[in-house]
Design brief:
The chain is α+β, with helices and mostly antiparallel strands. It contains 6 helices and 10 strands; from the N terminus they run βαααβββββαααββββ. The chain has helices at 21-30, 38-41, 58-68, 173-177, 190-195, 205-220, and strands at residues 11-19, 75-84, 93-106, 113-122, 128-138, 163-167, 228-235, 245-253, 256-263, 268-278.
């Protein structure tokens, strides 16, 4: 099936999402926070982990898959970029989001395709809170005749990481994470996972990114998640629930660092080309 390039420029929204402190806490639990980070899981002095902002992309993700014509069995999250413009209110409220499919790129027959879109979110007063840029990698849709797209140069410093930190997602982590809105069956349904080429359900890339974001905050600006202004990454390999991960960090400026996240058991990179910036 050929991708529907006519969907480029398609607007989705406005989509409204109400949330309160329980949603913030549930998300934090879904990405591994606990008693050692009480300010993420207890309503007293509650802080918002910035990647909570990704929850506004799920409806857009569904619309994009449906309107672009991608083969759902081959869909994985390829890259993600989050820009925080103003702090996310910890007391809750209503989020207003508008999304748009901005591009489709053809990596070639047998090499897949990319579908890219932006989602801008404001609060009830119209203040812009954050922007998500979603890149969907469709493994089975290459060769549709579209543009190849450009390749961004990215090089890690030629030295050992400045910091390393290990984390341990639970074997049941996807079951908690999906309660925040990611209902894609790849992360819970064994039959769907096998049909997609995996031995069992895998971690959502955005769940692994949430773990990674927690690690970055703890190392770079501990206790002040609202200082994060940008985080960008590529999802490079699947991760199975229960597998320990290691986040490696290189500082490259006073307010910028590069990072990658490894599957400790297999010594392979699962999150690559990471960039984080903060105030």
């Amino acid at each position: 099936m050929t991708l529907n390039t006519g969907a480029i420029g398609l607007m989705v929204g406005p989509i409204e999402k109400e949330y309160d402190w329980k949603d913030i806490v549930l998300y934090a639990l879904g990405i591994g926070a606990g008693f050692d980070e009480l300010n993420y899981v207890y309503e007293k002095n509650l802080r918002v982990i910035p990647t909570f902002a990704i929850l506004t992309t799920y409806d857009f993700y569904e619309h994009t898959i449906r309107n672009s014509g991608v083969n759902i069995a081959g869909v994985v999250h390829g890259e993600h970029e989050l820009k925080i413009h103003n702090p996310i209110p910890s007391e809750g409220g209503t989020l207003h989001s508008m999304g748009q499919i901005t591009a489709m790129y053809d990596k070639g027959e047998g090499r897949g395709a990319l579908v890219i879109g932006d989602v801008d979110t404001t609060d009830s007063n119209g203040q812009k809170l954050f922007t998500n840029t979603v890149t969907i990698f469709s493994r089975f849709d290459g060769g549709f005749g579209g543009e190849r797209g450009t390749r961004e140069d990215f090089v890690f410093p030629d030295r050992m990481p400045d910091q390393k930190t290990r984390m341990h997602p639970s074997p049941d982590q996807p079951l908690i994470f999906r309660l925040s809105g990611d209902m894609f069956p790849l992360h819970v349904d064994p039959d769907f996972a096998k049909a997609s080429g995996f031995e069992r359900p895998i971690m959502a890339g955005l769940c692994t990114l949430g773990f990674t974001c927690r690690a970055l905050i703890k190392v770079l600006f501990p206790g002040e998640p609202e200082r994060l202004t940008r985080i960008k990454n590529r999802f490079s390999n699947p991760l199975y629930p229960g597998t320990p991960i290691e986040v490696q960090i290189w500082k490259v400026g006073s307010n910028k660092a590069l990072f990658k996240t490894l599957d400790v058991d297999k010594s392979i990179v699962v999150i690559d080309r990471g960039i984080v910036e903060w105030k």
